[in-house]
Design a protein that fits this description.
The protein is built from 9 helices and no strands. The protein has 153 residues and is mostly helical. The chain has a single domain, classed as 434 Repressor (Amino-terminal Domain), CATH 1.10.260.40. It is globular and about 45 Å long. The N and C termini lie far apart (41 Å). This is HTH cro/C1-type domain-containing protein.
Length: 153
Amino acid sequence: MHPAHPQVKTSFADKLNFLFDTVKPKNDDDRKHRRKSQHSNDEVAKAVAAYTGEPCSHNYIGKLRSGASAEPKIAVVEAIADFFEMPPAYFFDDARSQAMMEQMELATILADSDARALVLRELQELDPADVPVITETMRALRRVRQSKKEDPQ
């Protein structure tokens, strides 16, 4: 871990909410018509129930997201990880989940950036310890670009 970015312990709820905020529904025909920006608690609950063979409600997923229920069964964690196409270790290993979060944020930023080709070339030689610095730089660039769109003067 980069010394300027010490490992931060992140709750299960924080990690789960990060996935809801970051992993967007695929653009299949059903979702394209709904134009959803994120998955619903109900979608995840149905996937958990299908994966585990046990009932799961959208209320339970909501409790996991709020932290009201903080210790789900391993099978539930595996089902949620599977739904979001993440390894289950994302929820258990803080160092690994922090690195994954940084990589996902960077990928999200790059998907929205005109500088994507240049940055992708440079990333081939990037030290993994520099990912947090690059991510923060790209966030700052995105904020500047967004403010220019909102206030074109």
